[in-house]
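# step 3/5: fold
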Amino acid sequence: LAAGGRVSEALLAYLLQTDGYLNLAPPKTTGREYYGEGFVSALWAKGAELGLSGADLLATATRYTAETIRLAVERFCPVRPDLLIVGGGGSRNPGPIWPRPCPAARS
């Protein structure tokens, strides 16, 4: 479904600027307790405010996930990894979730 939408740069910027969890230093972990119903409701409301379709919201949320990984590597890894291994169900989503090569990887 996300592949049928377009990433909203406005919504992506909003999420990256307003999500305080991204600024917490590792080690950390989260899941539905933070990125659950409340987060999705707020995401949906902001998307409606911006006039986005459901597919656009999914595309943006998918890209947001990738951007959070990139930002964490940039902010918290003094030495950039040569390889990032992504696991979990979302890692099987078709289509690129970030530009290749990953911007967080060393050049």
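# step 4/5: annotate
The chain has a mean pLDDT of 84.
# step 5/5: archive (pending)
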